Amino acid sequence: MNGGKYVTAARQGLSGTPGSPAQKEQFQALLVRCRLAVEAGPPEVAITTRGRRSTGLSQERTASMLGLSVRSYGDFERGLTHREPEFLDRVASVLHMSAHERHVMFLLSNGQEPPQPFTNQLDSIPAYQLALDSSVLPGYLSNRCWDIELTNQAFRDVWAGRELPTNVLRYILINKEAREHVLLDWETGWALPFLRQQRAALNTSPWEAGLVQLQHELHDAARTDKPLRKLMKHSMDDEYVHPNGDTRLIHHPKWGPTRITLLMTRPLDAASGHRFVWLVPPKPVSQMP
């Protein structure tokens, strides 16, 4: 759909003038529908005004993820307050809105078009996959929450015969097979930097449901994982943002112990934080053992 048709589609079904009672009702209905449709980890249970239970995000949880009081979020959801575009994009991400839902939210909120395209999914998967498959270097594509969405064969070869990671942070910090057999120098080379990276990510995007869920999982795992619990305390001693250009030690099934360099692109889009990450060996792949 081209831009003109998309704008027309986004405006279809909107009634009333901006700020009118009719548009406030539509705005509230949109946010409530999206909020109750969210599934972030174990389903959250909310109590409706009639006492029935509904899965999804409660107003309290949504307000917390957005850094608001429950009253402030309630006023926003009812269309009583206007917010800047950056805040509306945070809402779109927290509520897992589609591009169309986000577009309509902006129109209902302030009558303005969204400032930039938005996607919670990859619009160019074939091209991204081709870019990965064209490289002999192990590589993957992940989102802001470190979910691995695309990989290439060279990356899968690193875990030949083992469980393939689906989330970078969860694999590095919680998977015990990883620390014992794949990620060499686990404590200082992998765990500490990524614990600090998770903290930095949460400070930057406290509204991101996936990051919040990961933090809950880390705290749950640390209750019975003494090494992880110790490192979580030590991780507060320093700051760390991302590992681009850093070296890490892994055990490759063909190369043996290998010091790789982590190279990553900037986020491909601001909304999802998708980026390519490459594991680069110390010399050309053709010269590796």
From TrEMBL:
It comes from the Bacteria. One of its GO terms (molecular function) is DNA binding. It holds the Pfam family MLTR_LBD. Signal peptide: none annotated. Residues 1-22 are annotated as: Disordered. InterPro entries: Cro/C1-type_HTH (IPR001387), Lambda_DNA-bd_dom_sf (IPR010982), MLTR_LBD (IPR041413). Residues 52-102 form the HTH cro/C1-type domain. This is HTH cro/C1-type domain-containing protein. It comes from Kitasatospora indigofera.
